[in-house]
Amino acid sequence: MQRFTKYIFLLTLSILIAPFAGINLLAAQTNISTSDRAISSELNSIEETKVQSLAENSLAQVTSVSQLSDVQPTDWAFQALQSLVERYGVIAGYPDGTFRGNRAMTRYEFAAGLNAALDRINELIATGSADTVSKDDLATIQRLQQEFAPELATLRGRVDTLEATTAELEANQFSTTTKLEGEVIFALISLIEGDNAAGEPVDTNPTASYRVRLNLQTSFTGEDQLTTRLQMGNVVPLGGTNSGETLTNEGRIEFDGDTGGDAQLGLLRYRFPVGDRTNIYLAAAGNGFVDLDASYQLTPFLDGNAVSLFGLRNPIYNYSAGTGIGIRHFFNDQIELNLGYLVPTNNASNPFPQNGLFDGTYAGLAQIIFNLSDNSRFGLSYINSYSPTGGDDPDVEPNTELTPFGTSTGSNLSNSSFGRPVSVNAYGFSGTFRLSPGLAISGWVGHANHRYIGRGDGSMWTWAASLNFPDLGKEGSVGGIIVGMEPRLTELDSNLGSPDRDTSLHLEAFYKYALTDNIQVTPAIIWLTAPDHNADNDDIIIGAIRTVFRF
């Protein structure tokens, strides 16, 4: 049997409505029963629900058949459609200006369309502008109303069920799933010219390298998050304490690290809420204070955009380690408190002396952040750390044992334990102020007192200021200029030797261009004056092009 299309339906409507062009008000009122009016009222209610649920797919009432682009005068139902549109106003089209008359109709669509016709009939009855109407016509309308009453009742039930289901989904719109987030970096990096920390010319061989991260984001309640990161890469550091081409941590690339081609567990962290204003972080492996949400919000235009490790954030956050706990609490919308305690991952699982959670290297953070407005925020930070890795031998000479300690940026002296356990009290100020949609300034100041147990004290300073240009050239792109001083040991007790004698400046320019939402290319140049805070060394210039793919 031929399907019931919209064209057949409109022809039916035109036949039904035509007799009512001249309705006698009294006759109509005496022949339409109370039950008919109840059904018509139900049709009205269903039509309103249908219109609301399909609002995004419907047009306003069309007033001329010419508004429907797919209806032509040669169509067999053209006159019926023209009459329904222009005389009775009971036809609507789709947002693209089409009627789609050959599309099959459901009985529910027929019921809703019939309701529009009945509305027009009621309007004609109310005007009392006609003479007579036959009982046969009224009987036909009544039979249609009765026949479609079950569909109307079913449709009403389905709408009620849909509303209940939607409310349930909104209240419990989470299912336990794991979402994969990937990031791949391709990088071209080269030392262009300059001297290393020993005063020797650097090797200018360009390199091509990569880093791959796969983050598995899992939630069990819809409000918590378990992050498991697998990572591998072959980005050989340009420098480091007594290693690399530059022989200093100044100018380090933020994504450096060589896993030898092996996939490693880069991060394991679980965050869950306690109340409406507090989040707890359980840091199992690979975490720094930045991974406890303690710094990103303070320099959002630098973190993830700058190419150097120094350019991301205040270096004092790098006194942290990998395993522990963090707390982020919001007193209100303007003030929040961050607390953290971390120890090296390998130490945390080691039960021997100078290891474990409380008998070895650790770093503790207390920070308060002020969100003054959507465009400005700043934070005051305090970090206390201890590293026993320098050993306890008082006969070890200064500068002969540069152990893994410090901010991972800046001079060799600022990262040296001088062969002693080191206790640190560090203080920082960091903030961002957005002056306009296309301009923001960010910066920080960091200071740390180093106590080399049994040997003496030292003082470290660092600072930076940056101009940031959000959406420069294209939405999602960011440009930046950074000027600062990487960590410098400005004071040192005489029995330990001399502090850094000169001041090296870090100058960096980068432009992250968003090719798409998932691909960004960032060319950057880094210029270090007086490398390792030694004016005898020629300036170092580093060039890099970082391409990031996210999925």
TrEMBL record:
Residues 64-128 form the SLH domain. Coiled coil: none annotated. One of its GO terms (molecular function) is porin activity. GO terms for biological process: carbohydrate transport. GO terms for cellular component: membrane. It comes from the Bacteria. PROSITE patterns: SLH. Belongs to the OprB family. PANTHER family: OUTER MEMBRANE PROTEIN ALPHA, OUTER MEMBRANE PROTEIN ALPHA-RELATED. This is Porin. It comes from Chroococcidiopsis cubana SAG 39.79.
